[in-house]
Amino acid sequence: MSVKEENKNPAETAVKEKKQIAAKLIPIYIMGKRYEVPEGLTIMKAMEYAGYKFIRGCGCRGGTCGACGTVYRKPGDYKLQVALACQKTVEPDMYMAQIPFFPANRAQYEFADLTSAPEEVFKLYPELFRCVACNACTKACPQGIEVMDAIAALKQGNIAEAARLSFDCIQCGLCTSRCFGELAQYHMFQLARRIYGAKILPRAEHLAEMVGTINEGRYDQILDELKHVKEDELKKLYQEREAEPMAAGEDWKPKDTRYL
Ligand code: FES
Prior knowledge:
Strand order of the largest sheet: 2-1-5-3-4
Helix content: 25-40%
Largest sheet: 5 strands, mixed
Bound molecules: FE2/S2 (inorganic) cluster
Number of helices: 12
Shape: flat
Order of helices and strands: HHEEHEEEHHHHHHHHH
Distance between the termini: 76 Å
Low-confidence stretches: 1-7
Strand content: 5-15%
């Protein structure tokens, strides 16, 4: 059997093709320099494949910390796109750069001294009223937040609505990088969510009760026992614990009521 014939073995050919597919490389441009990287990688992994080492601009790798804001453009397209490097997969001929930090204005305040009055936000961020409602911030948000609407809510003094609309904000700063009025929307929203959570939402009474119970030492003994359990046994206890069912009603109680 010749070498050529051997290569016609369907099993071997399939393996070879699979390897070729797995190794298919596509061109991308990182800060203007061309690299070839395997398709299917996230921008972050592609940059690492190309030799970059992340010492900043990378945190959770899971789309929640906002450290990896990235801008990119495709050939022949005027539009500047935004993405999180840890989430977006590379596309052929992308031109990209990361904006891991944006030097936006962040107001200084003693949170305990603030009230829930909208004027607190106006005083700390007077530039809020520089918003010209161009909506560039919304278009730049990789989280799909209606950024301009949340800013409009803040201007109207509706802190609760601004907090609700901006709930998915991960502080990447891409909105600010595109803002005509030079607003630091993400810092303003963080203040709104803090005020809403601490000074507008009613206190959870059951939580205060539970904290009191913990402080009284009700769980000290069991916690102490658990600290001395071996890791395997601890995992077993955790896996076999009685968990609250997804569709449990308000009156659900575990069978073991010793720790209620
Ligand atoms: S690394 Fe945290 S959002 Fe991308």
